[in-house]
Design a protein that fits this description.
The complex is a heterodimer. Chain A has helices at about 5-15, 20-30, 65-70, 85-90, 120-125, 130-140, 155-160, 165-175, 190-205, 235-245, 260-265, 275-290, 300-315, 320-345, 360, 365-370, 385-390, 405-415, 425-435, 450-465, 480-490, and strands at about 30-35, 80-85, 115, 145-150, 175-180, 220-230, 250-255, 270-275, 295, 350-355, 375, 400, 420-425, 440. Chain A is of the alpha/beta class. Chain A has a 6-stranded mixed beta sheet, sandwiched between helices. In chain A, helix 6 runs parallel beside helix 8 and helix 13 runs antiparallel to helix 14 (about 320-345). Chain A is globular and about 85 Å long. By secondary structure, chain B is an all-beta fold. Helix content of chain B is about 0%, strand content about 60%. Chain B has strands at about 5-10, 15-20, 25-35, 40-45, 50-55, 65-70. Chain B has a 6-stranded antiparallel β-barrel. In chain B, a hairpin with a 4-residue loop joins strand 2 (about 15-20) and strand 3. The termini of chain B are close together. Classes of the chains: A alpha/beta, B mainly beta. Chains A and B meet through helix 12 of A and loops of B.
């Protein structure tokens, strides 16, 4: 199918909206739009971060998912208690593939599930005593933990437990950080508020721990990677580029991160923010309190990576800028070989995305490096500032959809007929059964890393592997194919 | 009466960030910018205006302050 014009795209949105009742239609209209490069502010064309419409299929998560699953969970040497009934922790356990180094169960706890397993009596009589006991048990069984965070599930907020009091008491008793996080699932409209709550908990309970301590040796080249969750090793493939440039990465937030790194972050010279959505709050706080500037960067695809490396180097002196150019020159033959190999196989293919966080805008550059075009994108839980940044990244007259419903997404795909879809696991099998190649872009479909130059090679291979897989031509049974029918007609 | 953050962006332009609204907008004008007073009516690029209780001098940015809607 050829490129859609503005009128066609607008007509498509109207057609899809047609099935909704009047009120729902009015609500959903605001979340769907056609990108217009003349609009500079997203609030003029799209509404975001609003409560999902009851009755539709949404793929959003909850505040607990945002805090425990995204921000706190990857901090490997802390134990994160899913405080409440057992399910929330168990069904979100180890799903996000935040890689880390360490011995699980001894000094790292990333893929384990700790829960207070609430029963009826805990709801009736309160769960604080149980939490108290649980923390003592953790100290006995896992003495090498460096701290504990209490991630509240819905009932904690509903019954009014005082987890802060327990946390304070236990911090004194054990001499380790015990952080209460009020991330009950019902707060906010999506996981986004969970990120904010988690950031605030870091601000209030962790960040200031070493404010009066100057023993940490500092250099002029200290930076922190903020908002890289090390999915499939992403943070590692980003980190080596920064280190080759001569920078010293003091902290990784929070993929493969530790509480010690978080406490040291106020000592750095520059915060590098990859996932703006989940970590801008803490970056803004550090800018105000510790005078640490922050900048956003993008390590998807060589074009954007080189741009970002240069922008980062520009914040430092000439020695870094010189090394930055060396790094860029060093990797150039590598990524050029990748582009030379895969671009002919992927040129001109059209992609639709529907993901969360930073990816709906950040991966566009990587696809463009492979000669592919992103024809539709949308955020699960983005805010207006995300869309502000997206408008200029996307082509004119492309589709933008916020918190898209299952129905809308399917209809868009049927009409736009993209060659590849990138979204989550809940969409994966629907679209594969519809015969559309699909990549699961939340955890890189069990592959990765995708960041940096090393990641780009894997990204390109994965996209080619999915798109040009021979299985897409075999979806019709042989006797139902056009050739078979012609043969039957001829023999009759 | 939201808490907002005033900061200077990379171009050196002062912005006002309202976390609750996800609004980060350039500050067009601040009414009082003398040596003894800083604040008053703050006009943003999107046309909205807010009232900031005047401070004694221009603070070090970024800074979180409380503002009210003009007219409140």
């Amino acid at each position: 199918m050829t490129v859609m014009t503005r009128e066609e795209t607008e007509a498509l949105i109207q057609e899809v909206l047609e099935v909704y009742p009047e009120k729902a239609k009015k609500d959903r209209t605001k979340h769907l739009t056609v990108n217009d490069h003349e609009v500079t502010q997203s609030k003029k064309c799209i509404t975001s971060n609003k409560k999902s419409l009851p009755g539709v299929m949404t793929i959003r998560g909850c505040a607990y998912a945002g805090s425990k699953g995204v921000v706190w969970g990857p901090i490997k040497d802390m134990i994160h208690i899913s405080h409440g009934p057992v399910g929330c922790g168990q069904y979100s356990r180890a799903g996000r593939r935040n890689y880390y180094v360490g011995t699980t169960g001894v000094n790292t706890y990333g893929t384990m599930n700790f829960t207070s397993d609430f029963q009826e009596k805990d709801i009736v009589f309160g769960g604080d005593k149980k939490l108290d006991k649980l923390i003592d048990e953790i100290e006995t069984l896992f003495p090498l933990n460096k701290g504990i965070s209490i991630q509240s599930e819905c009932p904690i907020g509903l019954i009014g437990d005082d987890i802060e009091a327990v946390a304070k008491k236990k911090t004194e008793e054990h001499g380790k950080a015990v952080v209460p996080v009020r991330c009950e699932g019902f707060r906010g409209v999506s996981q986004s508020l969970g990120h904010h709550i988690a950031n605030d908990a870091i601000r209030d309970w962790t960040l200031g721990a070493r404010d009066d301590d100057d023993t940490f040796p500092q250099t002029d080249y200290d930076v922190a990677i903020i908002g890289d969750y090390n999915i499939g090793g992403d943070a590692w493939s980003s980190r080596i580029l920064l280190e080759e440039m001569g920078l010293r990465v003091v902290a990784q937030w929070s993929g493969d991160g530790t509480i010690a790194e978080m406490e040291l972050t106020p000592k750095v010279k520059l915060n590098l923010v990859h996932c703006y959505r989940s970590m801008n709050y803490i970056s803004r706080h550090m800018e105000e309190k510790y005078n640490i500037p922050w900048m956003e960067y993008n390590f998807f695809g060589p074009t954007k990576t080189i741009e970002s490396l240069r922008a980062i180097a520009a914040k430092f002196d000439e020695s870094i800028q010189k090394k930055c150019e060396e790094v860029i020159a060093k990797y150039q033959p590598e990524w050029e070989a990748v582009v030379a190999k895969y671009r002919p196989r992927l040129e001109g293919k059209r992609v639709m995305l529907y993901i969360g966080g930073l990816r709906p805008r950040h991966v566009i550059g990587a696809y463009e490096d492979l000669g592919m075009e992103v024809v539709g994108t949308g955020y699960e839980f983005g805010h207006n500032d995300d869309y502000d940044r997206t408008l200029k990244e996307m082509g004119d007259s492309t589709l933008l959809y916020d918190d898209v419903t299952g129905f809308e997404f399917e209809e868009f795909v049927k009409k736009v007929q993209p060659d590849l879809i990138g979204s989550g696991v809940k969409e994966k099998y629907i679209f594969q059964k519809m015969g559309v190649p699909f990549r699961q872009m939340h955890s890189w479909d069990y592959s990765g890393p995708y960041h940096g130059f090393d990641g780009f090679a894997i990204f390109a291979r994965d996209m080619d592997m999915t798109l040009n897989n021979p299985c897409w031509g075999k979806l019709k049974a042989p006797w139902e194919s056009d050739e078979a029918e012609e043969a039957v007609a001829a023999s009759a | 009466m939201p808490s907002v953050m005033f900061r200077e962006n990379e171009q050196g332009q002062m912005t006002m960030y309202i976390p609750k609204k996800d609004l980060e907008e350039n500050v067009e004008n601040i009414e009082l910018q003398s040596e003894t007073e800083w604040g008053g009516e703050v006009t943003l690029a999107d046309g909205s205006s807010w009232y900031l209780k005047p401070l004694e001098a221009k603070p070090k940015l970024p800074i979180t302050l409380r503002v009210t809607r003009s007219g409140d």
